[in-house]
Amino acid sequence: MAVSRILRNLVLLICLSCVSCQNNYNVPINPPFNPLKPAPGPCPVVPVVKNFNLQQYLGRWYEIERFFNQFQEGSCVTADYTLFPNGSVSVINTEVVNGKLNPIFGFATLGPDPSEGRLVVDFPSSPVAAYTGKGVPNYNVVATDYVNYAVVYSCSLPWPKFKLEFSWILARRPSVPQSFLWELKSWLRYANVDGRRYIPTLQDYSCPRRLS
Predict the structure, then answer these.
(1) Where residue 166 sits, what CATH number does that domain have?
(2) Per the confidence metrics, is the pTM higher than 0.90?
(3) Residue 43 lies in a domain
């Protein structure tokens, strides 16, 4: 009798484990995490894309993962870049908060060296203060192949001993293979970007405007 009860409990535990595995296959809506603080010291030196092709970079990007930050709380995040006639870039970042689309509008210009993937992005209507000096690039494209993925990084020291570090992994589709993310984060470690600080962004079929 005792052996039979043990076997039933073991089968139940296995079934629950399988259900848990299935539920965890997709990114949970509110994944538990403890955001890591930026490492002490100055901003690290990170590589940026050379011979940057702005035209190829335009279009829609889906946010796959990001560093924790105080100005993003939603899911289903997209970034849309289009070119203005004057050569600057229209930036529309959209997230879903409480079931509603929440866009923010801004613009971007290339940095001092237009051949590098460094841009100055500004959101005039955002309550978030600009922590970098005027004209200082705050959107650094660390890596991209233009058609699949991009990694963006930003770091600033607005006050002594107060470092702000942001990063986003973007993709042309709402999801990327986990194996690719692991390899990318391993490479980012050598690029002085801490891959442990990324948290996943929900991009499931409940997201509006999702590309299937």
Answers:
(1) 2.40.128.20
(2) no
(3) no
